[in-house]
Design a protein that fits this description.
The protein is of the alpha+beta class and 202 residues long. It contains three helices and nine strands, in the order ααβββαββββββ. The protein has two domains: 44 residues; 143 residues, Rieske [2Fe-2S] iron-sulphur domain (Rieske Iron-sulfur Protein), CATH 2.102.10. A three-stranded antiparallel beta sheet has the order 1-9-8, with no helix packed on it. Strand 6 and strand 7 form a beta hairpin.
């Protein structure tokens, strides 16, 4: 009987050792994973860095004339419109219907403080949030799409703000200022960088 008891105790001790060994290995593995997470996260920009405005690149060759594409910078949608000559022509002729035709009270870099609100006539770059309450204006680029004299532009369905093809706000809109133009640059003819202007300032 005593021999049987010793054998049983040895089996219990062996089982206990195996359990403790497995538990130690598992704990060590979990600890290694948690220790590695900060190291791995350091390889990519932090959430704070992204929020502060890591520049965003866009291949302009993929944007067709008359088309708008959207990217993201500082957690905000960025509208990029490739304007046709007809769209550019429709920017003029309605300054008397606008709240801030000369963009004196609106936000844009110095190089975009012009009637086209852009570095070039072809590409319009805007932060795609309405300056009223931050809703997302929809593209309504066709002439007469909203009403007979509509020159084309953006319409915010939330509260009815209207903006032309340069992002300038129409009178009668709840929004008081034009759509914001972010800093941007063209490092080459087919690449747009949002968040950095030609001097490297964000």
């Amino acid at each position: 009987m005593a021999d049987h008891a010793v054998v049983a105790d040895d089996e219990v001790d062996l089982s206990r050792r195996k359990f403790l060994t497995r538990a130690t290995i598992a704990t060590g593995a979990v600890g290694a994973v948690f220790a590695a997470i900060p190291f791995i996260e350091s390889w990519s920009p932090s959430e704070r860095a992204r929020a502060q405005g890591v520049p965003t690149e866009l291949d302009l060759s993929k944007v067709e004339p008359g088309q708008m594409t959207t990217t993201v910078w500082r957690r905000s949608p960025i509208y990029v419109v490739r304007r046709t000559p007809d769209m550019v022509a429709r920017i003029a002729g309605h300054d008397d219907q606008l709240k801030d035709a000369q963009s004196g009270s609106s936000i844009q870099p110095p190089y975009a403080k012009n009637p086209l609100r852009a570095r070039s006539a072809e590409f319009l770059v805007l932060i795609g949030t309405c300056t009223h309450l931050g809703c997302l204006p929809k593209q309504r680029f066709e002439k007469g799409e909203l009403y007979a004299s509509w020159p084309g532009g953006f319409f915010c369905p939330c509260h009815g703000s209207r903006f032309d093809l340069a992002g300038r706000v129409f009178q009668g809109s709840p929004a008081s200022t034009n759509l914001v133009v972010p800093p941007y640059s063209y490092p080459n003819p087919r690449t747009l960088v949002v968040g950095v202007d030609e001097k490297g300032a964000a």
